[in-house]
Amino acid sequence: MGQPTIKDVAKLAGVSISTVSRVMNNSKPVSPEARRKVVDAINKLDFKPNELARSLVMRKSNLVGVIVKDIGIEYMAQLIRGIEEIGRVYKYDIILSSSYGEDKQLENSIDFLATKQVEGLVIITEDISTEVLVKLRETKIPFVLLDKYHSYKNIKTVKIDFESEENRLVQSLTQQGHKKILFVADKEQNVINDSMVKGYESAVGADNSYILRIDGITSDDGYRMADQAIELIRKESITAVACVNDEIAIGFMNYCVDNGIKVPDDLSVVGFGDSKIASVYRPKLTTVSIPYYDIGAISIRALIKRIKQEGEILVDDWVIDAQIHQRESSKVIN
Description:
334 residues; 45% helix; 4-stranded parallel sheet
């Protein structure tokens, strides 16, 4: 015997199909006796409604599509966790798709999720073209865009203030007695790099600024640039190094280990991002922890309010405070 249908339920209960539908959807009043018969029939038949068919009729699927550049990127996985866990609190499940940084794949993902009757979209990217943004708007599906590297006109998001957080981190070094601090920045021009440079410069002053721009953001890049950094450090009697991310900081500290430079006794080093390795590496890295879970959680809450037309909580960018983790790689000096 195949799966029971709504027609089977109606026949067993001795009521019309429309009455069964009203009971299931709680859409119109039904007499207590008819409701009892329908519920009994559903239980006896172990009837499970076709959720896709119901979503097509009711235009409600309780599904949200999440498109990421790559789930293998550590911070994107943290964002997804916040989105999924808080989404479930509001009875929404997610369908996940990856674009791998390709516009065509991103467009395909949008089309695919639209066929699944998703009620909203969260796009987690590091760059998105104008053409894809136009397509996104044309779908008429409510969406939230999370891109920490870029800002987009007329699109509000959830983020941290990289300028303010870098300023606080560098100020924590000055409060430890460090008067000369090197900032290792990425050459690429984007919101994060430009904001962090501004934060560093406002903390140390324009006349006391030492910035080394390097090509790349991996630990290998941090190691390769270390010769140049150490030359500047010794020439200017610099006592602390602030890196644009944890990976560069780890690579730089590896160089220090290989060349007899003790961190933090000879040189304090700080990173940014609080990647998993930051609390495992020795010495443990002083860094800024970005609340990616919270960013994901607020984003899905904002999206659900849009879906339900309950108002807009992203009337402006929602800025979340980050947290400095003071660990072993930096210390007070005399």
